[in-house]
Every structure is written in structure tokens, then in C-alpha cells.
Specification:
Blueprint: E1 4-12, E2 18-26, E3 33-37, E4 43-46, H1 89-92, H2 98-109, H3 114-123, E5 126-132, E6 135-139, E7 150-154, H4 155-175, H5 177-204, H6 207-219, E8 230-234, E9 240-244, H7 251-294, H8 298-310, E10 332-336, E11 339-343, H9 347-357, E12 363-367, E13 374-377, H10 384-396, E14 406-412, E15 416-418, E16 427-429, E17 433-437, E18 447-448
Antiparallel strand pairs: 1-2, 2-3, 3-4, 5-6, 5-7, 8-9, 10-11, 10-18, 11-13, 12-13, 12-14, 14-17, 15-16
Length: 449
């Protein structure tokens, strides 16, 4: 019941005699190994050779007799006399993982008995995959404790599906790694810049004090002699105040110096606030790209790269390759009931959908206060089920995909306007309604157009 595979191999030798071999694949953490054994149970070779002086209990060396790994002191999960449910099942039963233990305990808490659960495990020939956030959990029984729907596959089909998804995700990250690094670098840069600007603005906010000191010095302008480094005055609240002076200047000249400081700080405060606004807009933009990359396939990532080149964040390559035939829209589509639901997953796709693909009478959707997908459905009066399907899609393809009660705004496309001077994907809407949705992964087939 451990992670152990045996391949029985039938092969012909140089004399065309049939020979039988066994390939033992031992997947046990740092002790993992692959060992090829002949008909006489002698080791031909191994991925990791273990000589007798390293392990005299189990030698893995060409010519040595093959022995199985030492059994752990655990019970057979399908043939035991007594088990303590207050102790860890992982410590008591062979082949039990922490994940399976959680599932068994969850089922016991919900009224199933241990024998029934173990029989389900013993008799299963299926693989059940459950998607949780950005990862996949799987076992040979449904993982009901995750409280998410699981998909049933035959074992081979299940592993094909599971590892294709994982490999595809890693492939996208590998190919678009430069984009991830660039976007994360920009996020870090603008976070640091905003923090420094906010510190600077704090020191500039005491401009009013400089003006008050200037007023005070003019009030006591008869103290006109130079050479003083400080003077004690009574302020307008009747309190004594020590004012620092430039000894090279008289009182009026010192007052003008304080007035100049006031004006300078006043101007710098306005400038700093403008710079903070710019930096916050940039940070918000790169956060949106980070979210888009999280759900991007290779094509989507390429479009994000094109967008960064368009706005001069990245340089275009000087190498001229063969011209690629461009797709008409580069959008995604689902057929639902009698309608076509079309959506984008990045800024360029969203702009194409909203202002090139969608017609004025199409209903348009977007998750409120989240960066994410723009979507339209080819009707001006969708029924409630269609509205909920559209709202679910835009909520799922946004940062709110793992939240609950995500607000989604929807209106006719003719009520969506591009904000003048803004980047791709930013719009203003009017005459809209809002629906709240708990996002779920769409099960309908998504096609690319």
C-alpha cells in the first residue's frame, strides 16, 4: 500500500530467447529508486546504487539479490482487528496519507462507518480530481471534505488530465517568466515609490508653520539688527516661541525667508500629491496585469506582452520573423442555451470585445471593483439563468474568483464608454444593474475565436 510500482517486462535477448524482467519503481521520498531485476531475482542495475557498507540490510548493487524495502510497523487497512480512531490513521494504517485521513475522518463525522469507507477505497477503480484555488487535489474516492465538486475519471485518463493541467501551467510560467518578473518588479518599484513620496509629503505638510513664523517676524520687525541666531517672541496665542534666524539677515529678511519656505513647501506638496496619484495608477495597472497573467494561457500572455510594448514598458525585438496570421478577435466564447457568450481575459481582448465585437444591443458584464474580464451576450434581454451564467464567468475570470457575493455590473453595450486618455480596458458605464454571485469554475466548453 505504499507508492510502489512493479512493471513486468517480457523481452528478447541477443539469441531471441524470451526473458522476463521486473522494474521496481520505489517512490518513497529521499529513498526513491528504480531497480531492474532479472528472472533469478538478481539486480541488473539501479538508478541509485547502495553498496553493503552504506546499508547492510538492503544492498542495491548489480548482481546482489533483490529484497523489498523493510515493511513499516503498520496494519493492513483492509484486514485489521483493532484500530484507535483517536490516534492518527497515518501512523496506524499502511498507505494512508494525511489527505486521505482527513477525508475518512470527515466521512465518519457525517455518519458513515469505517468499514463502508474502507470498502469504497478498496473497490474503487476511478480517480476523483478536485480543483481548489490554483491547485488540484485527487484520490480514488471523492474528497468531500474539500466541499467542492470533484470530477470522475478512469485512473489513466485522470492522471493525463491532472498532469496536462499542471504541465500547461508550468509551461506558461516558463515561457512567460520574463513577464511575471517584469510585472512583479514594477509592482515592487511603485510600492516603494509611493511609500517614499508619502514620507516626503509628511515633512512638507508643516508649511503653515513657516508662514506663521514669517507673520510673527513682521509683527516684531523693529528687532532689525543682524547677527542673531534665534529670538524669543510671543505668538498669537500668547505663548513664548523661540524662532531660529539666519544671523546674516535682519528680521524682515528672515521673515521673507520663512515666506519663501512656505511657498516652496506648498508647491512641493501639490506636486508630491500628483506624483502619488500617478504612481498609484501605475501600481493599479500592474496589479491588473498580475491578475491577468494568473489566468493567462500562452496566447493571452503574448497579448499582454504586446500591450507592454505598445505603452513603451518593454522594447520590441528588432528580429523580423515571418508574419503571423492574426485571428479576427482573439476572444473566448461559450454557447449557452440559444445564446453566444463572448469574453476577454486581458486589456486588449476586453477593449476588442467592448468596442469592436459587441453590438449596441448586446448586454455587457464586468465584475464591480475587480480587475478582470469584459463579457457580452448576444441579446438585449437575457433571462435570469443567462444573466447568472454571464455574471459567474466575469466573476470567475477576475480577482474575485475565490470570493463570495461578488458584485457584477451589467448594462447594454451602448451605455459603455471609453475613458478619454485612459489605457486599454478602462471604461465608464451608465444605466446599469448589479447582481451578486458566488463564482464557480465554468464547466461548459470554451472556444477561441
Amino acid at each position: 500500500y505504499d507508492r510502489y510500482l512493479i512493471f513486468n517486462i517480457r523481452a528478447l535477448n541477443d539469441l531471441y530467447d524470451v526473458k522476463h524482467y521486473r522494474l521496481h519503481v520505489e517512490l518513497m521520498g529521499k529513498y526513491a529508486n528504480v531497480v531492474l531485476v532479472d528472472e533469478n531475482n538478481r539486480i541488473i542495475d539501479a538508478l541509485k546504487r547502495i553498496p553493503p557498507f552504506e546499508n547492510n540490510k538492503r544492498t542495491i548493487w548489480p548482481g546482489a539479490e533483490f529484497t523489498y524495502p523493510e515493511k513499516q510497523d503498520k496494519m493492513d487497512p483492509f484486514n485489521f482487528e483493532n484500530i484507535d480512531l483517536k490516534r492518527s490513521l497515518v501512523e496506524q494504517l499502511s498507505g494512508f496519507s494525511p489527505l486521505l485521513q482527513k477525508e475518512v475522518y470527515y466521512r465518519l463525522e457525517n455518519g458513515q462507518d469505517l468499514k463502508t469507507v474502507l470498502d469504497l477505497i478498496k473497490n474503487s477503480s476511478k480517480l476523483y480530481i478536485t480543483k481548489t484555488n490554483d491547485s488540484y487535489q485527487y484520490h480514488i474516492i471523492p474528497l468531500t471534505h474539500l466541499k467542492k465538486e470533484s470530477k470522475e475519471f478512469s485512473v489513466d485518463e485522470g492522471f493525463d488530465t491532472l498532469y496536462y493541467a499542471l504541465e500547461e501551467k508550468e509551461r506558461i510560467k516558463e515561457i512567460t517568466g520574463d513577464l511575471y518578473r517584469f510585472v512583479n518588479k514594477q509592482i515592487k518599484h511603485y510600492k516603494t515609490k509611493i511609500a517614499k513620496l508619502q514620507e516626503t509629503i509628511k515633512s512638507a505638510e508643516n508649511a503653515a508653520e513657516a508662514k506663521e513664523i514669517g507673520d510673527l517676524l513682521y509683527t516684531y520687525s523693529d528687532l532689525s539688527k543682524k547677527g542673531q541666531e534665534a529670538v524669543e517672541l510671543i505668538d498669537y496665542s500668547g505663548n513664548k516661541k523661540v524662532v531660529k534666524l539666519d544671523p546674516r539677515l535682519n528680521i524682515k529678511e528672515n521673515a521673507n525667508k520663512y515666506y519663501n519656505t512656505y511657498q516652496k513647501k506648498k508647491r512641493s506638496t501639490k506636486y508630491l500629491k500628483e506624483q502619488i496619484d500617478i504612481a498609484e495608477n501605475e501600481l493599479d495597472y500592474f496589479f491588473s496585469l498580475e491578475e491577468q497573467l494568473a489566468i493567462a494561457n500562452f496566447l493571452d500572455a503574448q497579448m499582454i506582452k504586446e500591450e507592454l510594448i505598445r505603452y513603451n514598458y518593454l522594447r520590441t525585438s528588432n528580429k523580423k520573423g515571418p508574419k503571423k496570421k492574426k485571428d479576427k478577435y482573439n476572444l473566448y466564447q461559450i454557447r449557452f442555451k440559444d445564446h453566444l457568450i463572448t469574453f476577454g481575459k486581458n486589456n486588449i481582448q476586453n477593449e476588442t470585445l467592448t468596442f469592436k465585437y459587441a453590438k449596441p444591443g448586446y448586454m455587457w458584464f464586468h465584475a464591480q471593483k475587480y480587475h478582470g474580464s469584459h463579457l457580452c451576450v448576444d441579446t438585449d434581454n437575457p433571462d435570469e439563468e443567462t444573466i447568472r451564467m454571464c455574471a459567474n464567468l466575469v466573476a470567475y475570470f477576475s480577482k474575485g474568483r475565490y470570493s463570495s457575493s461578488v458584485p457584477v455590473d451589467y448594462c447594454l453595450q451602448k451605455n459603455v464608454k471609453k475613458i478619454k486618455g485612459s489605457r486599454s480596458g478602462l471604461v465608464a458605464i451608465s444605466n446599469y444593474k448589479t447582481i451578486f454571485i458566488d463564482p464557480e469554475e465554468p464547466e461548459l466548453e470554451i472556444t477561441h475565436i
